[in-house]
Design goal:
Blueprint (H helix, E strand, L loop, with lengths): L3 E5 L3 H13 L3 E5 L2 H10 L4 E5 L7 H10 L8 E5 L4 H10 L3 E4 L4 H15 L7 E4 L2 E4 L4 E4 L2 E3 L3 H12 L7 H9 L8 H14 L8 E4 L3 E4 L1 H6 L1
Parallel strand pairs: 1-2, 1-3, 3-4, 4-5
Antiparallel strand pairs: 6-7, 7-8, 8-9, 10-11
Helix pairs in contact: 2-3, 6-7, 6-8
Amino acid sequence: MKARILVVEDEEALTTLLRYNLESQDYEVETVARGDEADTRLKESIPDLVVLDWMLPGLSGIELCRRLRARPETRQLPIIMLTARGEESERVRGLATGADDYIVKPFSVPELLARVAALLRRAAPERIATVLAYGDIELDREKRRVARSGRPIDLGPTEYRLLEFFLEHPGRVFSREQLLNSVWGRDIYIDERTVDVHIGRLRKLLNPGEAEDPIRTVRGAGYALDDRFQKAG
């Protein structure tokens, strides 16, 4: 799946520039113009990286960064901060608050793209891996093939995307809404029960004759690629 980037920027022209150039690098891009709206969005769905402006309406970028670092689920979320503040003290403040990188406006677009790619490589190497593996499950992105214990498994496109997403985030629990937003997309309306249908299909395809179910419902909160399965495998 494409790496998802959330751009939090209130300057429309800059937002358009960032979206165009990031999408040209095959990233999936969402944009938000207010800090408080970004805070709400990030509670619903967590991207792979955030490009965050310092000065925002509703909630400042520096405060949003502080909140994200205080939450366990976003503590490791890569954040690149954009700002017109070029003084050393302000750069230190931004980095001390939790930003992973800091770019001063006006900036070079190629440099920004290079920093995004470098940060994603460090933070989420599975995003660029050709083969994803977990326990006895293996997914080959180039060949679009899936196997379990060496046995080929024929998955439909939706089940393939679900498995790929779980393999990118092993052990993490996702609600139906989070899976809808991440696998199907926020702009598509689908009933949450659709997730159960496709999870059920994926389980059946992965589990013929197998004792361990790699995907389980976790205390009613949602679905996860089970850590117990990894130990068993």
